[in-house]
């Protein structure tokens, strides 16, 4: 008993006396759950083929990642943040306030956002306006904004199925959600009468839109159980689960790799990661990770990441971006406002 | 007021009927709970069982200058897409480690791609018809087989399902629980000893007692927030480390240990204390030589149950960064690590079928360890428990 207590106390004291300031070999990455599969693929490759330890990647959502990334410079802050949308001006400013002033932006490819349902339902064609009407908190009725009265798809348009509106989608910390709001909601509502010519992005909270966490698999599972529902998630999950779910055509375009890459499919977005250059010397793995990630082997036309759902950028753009990341071009506020 | 014998007999019938009804209802409740458990475990076994097997291919591997540069060249063209990329990419390192391999061609069993694995298990796979033909031929020759999945127990997380295993997570769990035990056990037992043996019974100790009981019911995610604020932000301990995870889970386990230790101490009869005092023992001697040894089985049981609870916990660990992609096994308590339930959670979010298997298999491993721990708790209690 006594010996037991003594060792216990000894271990506790030892644990407490370990100081935080330890040189770190391991790269730390946070951010988007959409970029996570690509990022961890590259990380594992780095760990398996070099002497660097495998980087640690937390899937926190784009917003959550930026929050951690911008907390400051130093050992306990991440070196890289993944994002499924561009860094926001507010995030850039927050970073700058906390001393994170030297950031490089790396664009890695495209991802489409699928608006999908169970395969049992067959194909459906929706317009962005119809989708916006289904999930907006307020919609114009006779020129005035009222709380969304639509219960069924057929309430929006007679040609749509007589099914209750249920949409499983990402929560507000998610980059997928940001992209959905921007590419579907804003675009659809901008020119719509009643919204005053401005994009409207508030999503209804009366139970018809169900925020389902950062777990896209869970949404797919929900769709197989509730065949009347729709789900919003990244294209890679649609491709992987083609036997369970089918993506709706949006404005007449089916969600397919070519259509996403060419920009024809309207709901596609770029994926990014952001590098904290101030950690360059402290964490040498950062450089190696950058080089590997931006290589043709990973993000190219025949790259590994294409195999797991990333849609490659055009060749010229890849070249330019590789240069940009290699030279660690500093991101400026003006870039983000473009 | 008097009842005739008939009245009582009539009543008796009704009372017996109620007894029978109660018995039936409680048996029904038990049967319902048992069937839920059976369905759950049965489902996990059905889904998880295939993960303990992994397809391997027997192919000639050529170790040459070329295959050191481009590992894909080490195997023949028709099987290139069938062999795991994870196996191929470690070739250059293997050749560096063993230079005698150079220039040889050796027939060896290599890990296959997860799609081959799914095909051999009779599940849906993305294999092209041509690949299927090659594979069918290999199955006939006996050069493609399902073997025991060693990788599942020796590797960490991976983006290649055939290389995904629970080793790193298991190491993380062990280190984390060691920290939890080293922190929560002494502190918990000491607190309980003070409250039970020394503390006066006043408003203050009553308030403390209420608070401890309250803490035991606080949602675990709050301990994660507390851990983030205190251990990471204030003390600057490394994020994602078993040190922080263990201390956070320790905070969570503390009330459980205090409460069970107190009841174990209380079950030691006062006569023992009085007898010890009677022969001139100091309070220190009474506690050390008599009360603690006698209550030890109860204390250990409580601690094991507390630990088992901590072991299955994920929510607070999300906040302190232990739910992440961490393939390397931790070597110390300050390195980044993940734990078993977190690994299961991560796999549950992967789209491939092979991960669905591994998720279930991970659950089976976790359940076995939990059953073992809880059985140990019961055994300890049965073996050492004394009744007065």
TrEMBL record, chain B:
SUPFAM superfamilies: MetI-like. It is a multi-pass membrane protein. It comes from the Bacteria. InterPro entries: DUF3333 (IPR024573), MetI-like (IPR000515), MetI-like_sf (IPR035906), Phosphate_PstA (IPR005672). GO terms for cellular component: plasma membrane. The keyword Transmembrane helix applies. Residues 170-376 form the ABC transmembrane type-1 domain. Gene3D superfamilies: MetI-like. One of its GO terms (biological process) is phosphate ion transmembrane transport. Pfam families: BPD_transp_1, DUF3333. Coiled coil: none annotated. Keywords: Cell membrane, Membrane, Transmembrane, Transmembrane helix, Transport. The keyword Nucleotidyltransferase does not apply. Belongs to the binding-protein-dependent transport system permease family. CysTW subfamily. This is Phosphate transport system permease protein PstA. It comes from Cobetia crustatorum.
């Amino acid at each position: 008993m006594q010996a037991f207590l003594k060792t216990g106390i000894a271990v506790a004291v030892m644990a407490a006396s370990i100081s935080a300031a330890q040189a770190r070999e391991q790269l730390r990455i946070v951010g988007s759950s959409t970029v996570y599969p690509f990022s961890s693929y590259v990380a594992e490759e780095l760990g398996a083929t070099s002497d660097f330890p495998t980087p640690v990647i937390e899937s926190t959502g784009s917003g959550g990642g930026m929050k951690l990334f911008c907390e400051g410079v130093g050992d306990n802050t991440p070196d890289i943040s993944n994002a499924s949308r561009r860094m926001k001006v507010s995030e850039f400013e927050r970073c700058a306030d906390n001393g994170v002033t030297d950031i490089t932006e790396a664009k890695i490819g495209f991802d489409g956002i699928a608006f999908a349902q169970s395969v049992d339902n067959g194909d459906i064609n929706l317009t962005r306006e119809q989708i916006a009407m289904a999930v907006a908190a307020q919609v114009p009725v006779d020129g005035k904004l009222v709380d969304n009265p639509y219960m069924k798809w057929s309430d929006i348009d007679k040609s749509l199925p007589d099914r209750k509106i249920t949409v499983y989608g990402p929560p507000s910390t998610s980059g997928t959600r940001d992209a959905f709001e921007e590419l579907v909601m804003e675009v659809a509502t901008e020119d719509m009468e009643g919204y005053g010519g401005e994009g409207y992005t508030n999503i209804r909270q009366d139970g018809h839109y169900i925020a389902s966490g950062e777990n896209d698999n869970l949404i797919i599972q929900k769709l197989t159980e509730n065949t009347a529902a729709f789900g919003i998630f990244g294209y890679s999950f649609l491709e992987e689960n083609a036997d369970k779910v089918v993506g709706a055509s949006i404005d007449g375009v089916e969600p397919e790799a070519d259509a996403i890459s060419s920009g024809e499919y309207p709901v596609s977005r770029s994926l990014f990661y952001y590098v904290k250059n101030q950690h360059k010397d402290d964490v040498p793995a950062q450089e190696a990770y950058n080089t590997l990630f931006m290589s043709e082997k990973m993000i190219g036309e025949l790259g590994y990441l294409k195999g797991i759902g990333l849609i490659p950028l055009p060749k010229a753009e890849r070249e330019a971006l590789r240069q940009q990341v290699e030279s660690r071009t500093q991101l400026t506020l003006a870039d983000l406002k473009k | 007021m008097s009842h005739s014998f008939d009245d009582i007999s009539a009543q008796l019938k009704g009372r017996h009927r109620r007894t029978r009804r109660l018995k039936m209802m409680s048996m029904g409740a038990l049967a319902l709970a048992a069937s839920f458990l059976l369905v759950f475990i049965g489902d996990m076994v059905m889904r998880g069982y295939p993960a303990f097997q992994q397809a391997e291919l027997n192919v000639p591997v050529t170790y040459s200058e070329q295959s050191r540069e481009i590992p894909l060249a080490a195997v023949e063209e028709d099987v290139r897409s069938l062999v795991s990329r994870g196996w191929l990419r470690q070739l250059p390192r293997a050749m560096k480690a063993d230079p005698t391999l150079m220039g040889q061609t050796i027939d060896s069993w290599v890990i296959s791609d997860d799609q081959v694995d799914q095909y051999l298990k009779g599940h849906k796979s993305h294999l092209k018809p041509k690949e299927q033909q090659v594979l069918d031929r290999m199955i006939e020759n006996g050069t493609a087989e399902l073997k025991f999945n060693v990788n599942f127990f020796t590797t960490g997380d991976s983006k290649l399902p055939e290389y995904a295993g629970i080793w790193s997570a298991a190491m993380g769990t062990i280190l984390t629980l060691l920290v939890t035990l080293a922190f929560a056990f002494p502190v918990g037992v000491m607190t309980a000893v003070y409250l039970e043996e020394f503390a006066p019974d006043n408003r203050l100790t009553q308030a403390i007692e209420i608070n401890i009981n309250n803490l035991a019911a606080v949602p675990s995610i709050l301990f994660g927030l507390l851990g983030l604020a205190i251990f990471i932000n204030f003390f600057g301990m490394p994020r994602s480390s078993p040190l922080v995870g263990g201390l956070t889970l320790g905070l969570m386990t503390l009330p459980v240990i205090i409460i069970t230790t107190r009841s174990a101490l209380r079950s030691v009869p006062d006569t023992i204390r009085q007898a010890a005092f009677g022969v001139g023992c100091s309070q220190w001697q009474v506690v050390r030589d008599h009360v603690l040894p006698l209550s030890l089985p109860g204390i250990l049981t409580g601690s094991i149950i507390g630990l088992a609870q901590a072991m299955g916990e994920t929510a607070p660990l999300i906040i302190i960064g232990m739910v992440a992609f961490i393939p390397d096994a931790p070597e110390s308590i300050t390195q980044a690590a993940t734990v078993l339930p977190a690994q299961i959670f991560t796999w549950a979010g992967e789209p491939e079928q092979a991960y669905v298997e591994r998720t279930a298999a991970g659950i089976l491993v976790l359940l076995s360890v939990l059953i073992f721990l809880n059985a140990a708790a019961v055994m300890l209690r049965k073996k050492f428990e004394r009744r007065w």
